[in-house]
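help with this:

***
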Amino acid sequence: MSKQSRDVLLQFWNYTSFRPMQEEIVDSVVAGQDTLALLPTGGGKSVCFQVPGMLMEGMCLVITPLIALMKDQVQHLKKLGIPAAAIYSGLHYNEVEIILNKSVFGQLKFLYVSPERLKTTRFFDLIKRMKINLIAVDESHCISQWGYDFRPPYLQIADIRPFLPGVPVLALTATATPLVVDDIQNKLQFRKKLVFQTSYERKNLTYNVIHHPDKLGTLLRMFRAMNQGSGIVYVRNRKKTREIAEWLDTSGISATYYHAGLEAKQRDERQSAWMFGRVKVMVATNAFGMGIDKPDVRLVVHLDLPDSLEAYFQEAGRGGRDGKESAAWLLVSDQDVKQLKSSFEASYPELKKVRDVYQALGNYLQVPIGSGMNQSFDFDLPEFCRQYGFPILEVFASLQFFEKEGLIRMSESVKTNSTLFIHAGREDLYRFQVEQPAFDPFIKHLLRAYPGLMTDFVQIREEEISRKMNLPIEKVGEYLHYLMKLNFLTYIPRKDKPQLIYLAERYQSANVLLSKEHYSDRKAIAAKRMQAVIDFVYTSEHCRSRQLLAYFGEKINHRCGKCDVCTNRNRLKLTDIEFNSIKDRLLFLLSERPYPLFEIVDAVEGYPEEKVMQAIRWMLENRLIIKDQTERLTIRKQLDIH
């Protein structure tokens, strides 16, 4: 089967060979085996389901929570001549029906859906009539309660398996701890556990931590020293993205900023400017980066502590996609851990606050109690917070709880172009043009400019119609809305705002409850992930790469030799064996009592005084040991570190 896989890869993607592990994953799926693929960010996960989807008879069902990713991949597949479609919130009912009919009648090779779609009665009924050859589950860590981005709708995926006997499942993710790996396979009801994993190690990417009060000065020096390529700066809040980008710009480093609160057009323009090198640095929240594959990112800098090592690993991993030397820097000040803990507490607000948010949402959207189920609303999160005086993090956390409890879901904020579908038949069309001659030029232009309008929804640009017909853009909208009222066509204007969807009718706020699984259990898991970040930041004894790999269950025996920890170690004229032996002896002695410097140097036998002093200086610099008030050496207490 490998030759056929390579033939498909060459025919549609113009690649002569697979990346590491891709071919083995494809062969496993084509053989009908349930498969878990752990590939790093940028490792080519999509090829692992797209190639077998083309090889096998039928249609591949792709389940992903990322609307932007759906749209990008569908657009790319269509350019390759492969029939594909995506169903996501915000689509008109008629658009969804056309896609579902194509799926049932075998006119698609790939259908992208969100996990929430599987819960709808219409989709569940039709899936039994679709000829599905593969279920591809992207971002599969979302199915695990131990994962950093658990999403309850993912638990519904296994419910469709009894209706698709023999259809394999391919689960894909970039990062997963051993516990999450096992949980993914159990939750997706793998018939046999099979995992393909490339090493998480990125030899060309160096991870570093700097403890310095002057973060901005350090940041500026880094980018001034970067002669080629581009960079990303991650921060936690939207306001800082603008402030830091403007500060870099005025300091001579071309920069722009990106966050989910920007209009879709602004996000597209800024992303494009950065992608094509018109600006050097993108300052962003974690909303930026999904699906971004820019090869020449030389620096990824975190100015704030990330919530988890999983998130940090993915964000840092956007550096060095071209295989050339790149670096990730985590800049830390004394206040960062306090801020991280404060954000953690805000992410788990008290039940009363959650109920207050639920009550305010119903009032803001004017949804009466007992109604609203399956209705979608434009939702401006910052405006809602301003109007009701809620902290934005508290509202966002509450929305996540509502989603986990199956009450409300907020979609991604993505730009949806206007779409048009003429459902009048040929005879009706001719009769209408005769009876309404004023609309004849307008309709003829639509049919000429947008082929396929009478068979499917087609994306249109009102500005383009306005320019070519010499009509005011307001008049274009009036014509389209008028024709829609006459049931001549369906016109869906573009949307830029996120959508808030009520998954259940609106309750009395007093009836909103948070289950132990979704609140206290998740809080305990999140606390462990937060502690892992703190440990990573303050552990200056072990190679950064080794620390990260160990977190994901991968052990390596070598040091990277380039991170801040290794660089400090490299300054010592000591072998690893010598250093570890001296360090262990020093820690043993100091665990019993504090020692004056001269006394402990003499107590470490078998090594010259110079080498013992080198090890002591390193341990003092990295705060494994400290001096007390009497200048004696002592072990720094764990509490002091955290």
Remarks:
- The two ends are 54 Å apart (CA to CA).
- The longest strand covers residues 205-211.
- Confidence is low (pLDDT under 50) at residues 638-642.
